[in-house]
Structure formats: C-alpha cells, structure tokens
Amino acid sequence: MSHLTPRLRLGVNIDHVATLRNARGGVAPDPLRAALLAQAAGADGITAHLREDRRHIRDADIDALVDALTIPLNLEMAATDEMQAIALRHRPHAVCIVPEKREERTTEGGLEVAADQHHLRDFIAPLKDAGCRVSLFVAPDRAQIEASYAVGAAVVELHSGAYCDFHDAGQQDARDAELVRLRDMAAFAHALGLEVHVGHGLTYGSVGPVAAFPEVRELNIGHFLIGEAVFTGLPAAMAEMRRRMDAARA
Fold first, then answer.
1. Which of 233, 247, 171 is nearest to 204 (CA)?
2. What are the E-state strand segments in 94-229?
3. Interatomic CA distance for residues 93 and 133, integer angstroms
4. Do 160 and 199 contact (CB within 8 A), yes or no?
5. CA distances from 145 to 20, 129, 165 (A)
6. What CATH number labels 9-249?
7. Residue 136 and residue 189: Cα distance in Å, rounded?
C-alpha cells in the first residue's frame, strides 16, 4: 500500500441488529453487543441511525453506545431540533445528517443541501462548536458537494445506492456510469478540502471499485454485514470485507 494512500477505515452500522430485535420485541439481539463485537473485531467506528420514528435504534441504545464504546460513534440523524438536542447532549465523535421520510424502508437518496443551505449552516454550527465532526450524506452531485462545503461540513458521505443497485441487478453500463460519477465526485470533494466517505448498499461484490478510490477515507457498511453475520458471524463477515477493501486499496 502506498504511503500516499491512507488506510481505508471501516465503519460498521448496527441499525439492523435493532431491526431484528424490534421485529419480536424484547431485548435480543442487543445492538450494543454487536457494536462491542465489531469493536473487538477491528471496526474503526460504529454507526447508528436514530430515526424520528425509532424503527430500529432507540434512545436507550445511543445511551449505551456512548457509555461503552472506545472507538468513534457516528450518529446518523435528521436535521430536526429533537435530534440536534440529543446530539448536543451526547456529543458523539461524528454526526451525519441524512434525509428521512417516514414511508421509506431505508434512506433513499442524498440530503438536499443546495436548496437548504441557510438552515443547515445554522443547524450544524452548534454541533461543530460541541466538538462533533459533521458529515452530510449526499448524492455524488457537484452542486450538493459544493453546498456541503459552503455550509461548513467537515465530511461528505457519498450515497452509493444507485451504483450498488445497478451492480446487484447486473446492469453493467448503468453501474459503470454511476461508478465514474462516484469517482469524479470523490475527487472533487477531496479537492475542496472535504473528507470523503461512502456508504449505502455496499457488498463483497461491489465494494472493491469504490474502495480503490484514493480520496475515500471511510466506508460505512451495515445491512450487508449484519446479513452475512447470520451465516458466518460478524467478525468473519468483517474480516472478509476488510480483506476486499485492503486488496482494492493495495
């Protein structure tokens, strides 16, 4: 691995451990246990999305994660007053602002930053003052990245969902076009001075080309890893993902 290409970090999203728990009710499986297992297995950070409807991660989960983790916590949340107050109370290492709709199954697209710059600038200012690294989850789009820089974000996380969907569907031309867009926008964001992360839908099969982008510093992966963990265990699933990430980076 070249000294010019930093080691790619792996953030493990534990939301869907909570999805399994909430499907039945009760306390098992415990998202905190998954987070601690991921931490012990070499995760560089833990991501948890506290949605307004609390469909998976709950407030008590965030309390437990903040108390127990020794690696960074990335708190994903919508840009609402309630979520801002929660983030300011806990002061996690990172806060990632994401769009949120009640009817969606998962986050469907990137945040609309360009049309909401005034609100977002005011929203993230107290988070930055509290010491949180603020990330905006955006489509790989020049206008959204420029706006993210303008409002003062430290990080952009590029939404890789379209690329992954085309990859999984075997639509090679569309997949390749999305991959070029991700590559170009990662380079553009990096040139502005933003740290670049990528996330959403990444699998063993789709991770390699994205992991190879030298400007990308972190991948956040959840649903696929938790699904693989059902069959192989979380440390083994993480180890295989890490192997593929490192191979692409070499």
1. 247
2. 94-97, 133-138, 155-159, 195-199, 216-221
3. 6
4. yes
5. 34, 22, 22
6. 3.20.20.70
7. 12
For 63, the token pair is 């309390």
- The two structure tokens encoding residue 15: 């939301």
Query: Could you give the CA distance from residue 189 to residue 149 in angstroms, rounded to a whole number?
Result: 8
What are the structural domain ranges in the chain? 9-249
Dist. CA 132–CA 125, nearest whole Å: 10
Residue with tokens 């040139």: 191
Q: Residue 185 and residue 125: Cα distance in Å, rounded?
A: 25
Nearest-angstrom CA–CA distance, 145 and 159: 12
Question: Against a cut of 0.90, is the pTM above it?
Answer: yes
User: Which active-site residues does the annotation give?
Assistant: 49, 76, 200
Sequential DSSP letters for 77-132:
E-S-HHHHHHHHHH--SEEEE----TT-SS--S----GGGHHHHHHHHHHHHHTTP
Each residue's pLDDT expressed in tens, for the chain with a length of 250 residues = 444 568 999 999 999 999 999 999 999 999 999 999 999 999 999 999 999 999 999 999 999 999 999 999 999 999 999 999 999 999 999 999 999 865 555 556 799 999 999 999 999 999 999 999 999 999 999 999 999 999 999 999 999 999 999 999 999 999 999 999 999 999 999 999 999 999 999 999 999 999 999 999 999 999 999 999 999 999 999 999 999 999 999 9
- Please give the structure tokens belonging to residue 121: 């600038």
Measured at the CA of 249, the angle between CA 245 and CA 250, to 5 degrees, comes to 120
